[in-house]
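Input record (one chain):
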Amino acid sequence: MQVRRVYLVIVLLLVIGVAVQCAPQAQPTPAPQAEEPPLFFAAFATPIEEPWDGVIHEALQEAADNGQIRYEWTDDIGYAGDMERILREVAETKKPTAIFGDAFGNEEAVRRVARDYPEIAFVFGSGLGPADPNLSVFDNWIHEPAYLSGLIAGGMTKSNVIGVVGGYPVPEVNRIVNAFIYGVKETNPEAKVLVAFINSWFDPPAAKEAALAQLDAGADVLFAERFGVIEAAVERGAWAFGNMSDQYELGPENVLTGPVWDMRPTVQYVIKQLEAGAYTAQDLKDFSMMAKGGARLAPFHGMDKYIPEDILALVKQREQEIKDGLFRVPIDEAQPAPEN
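The corresponding structure, as predicted from the sequence alone:
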């Protein structure tokens, strides 16, 4: 009987062993594949060194560096008809989620392509409105820090002559220049503001030449709405204000501050809209203003030690009032006179 029991136990163990070997083995669960970030493309009419396009590029590059998007771009496209061809090639071959860029001189081309590719979000700088279903627009609404810069300029001039060199006398530029002039007149009603336009978005030699002419006419403070003006200020030892970006490095002993445009709030808003599947064509204007962090004064980098204390106090007061909605800088898009 004892031998039989042992025999049964052995048989049972053999059966269990076979069953275990025949049972399907559990396989490790594969790790989920990380979803590839969406591709954003940018098409710029001017060279990337031009501050207007450089600000857009910087915001998109930062989003790419943070892993939010993949980013590709091309610049210096010009206004001879290449924008439409390039946009169509990009839409067909790369199939990006979004295309950013500057329209203006390429306005009709951008709108034609956007209409033909409704599945792509087109987000372009433009002086016109959005177009359903997929074309959103933005602009550099930096008239508020331009006004603050004017407050400082009015308090810094000794000759009571201030120069401004702009690109084209279009509404987008006029409102910045006029806001600067309003600031000048508030702190120094006696000051004269000379205004010149070079009729180009990027021609540093022409901008420098116009600035030198203003210095010859007595100006001792310059507002560089266009790239190239600060070089003239450095050569002649004049105070200068940059534009679009922090341009202190162009003249560390001359550049006091200047209006800065920050496209990060706009780019981040579009990214979130696309992630949520809620993107719609709209005017993104508000994201380029001070209240939402899209505009500000450039850092002083210690240059505020040259600015009178009462002027600095007024600038800080107005800056906070603008952010709180208690002070509104006039939006004047009329072409300023050569002398104001």
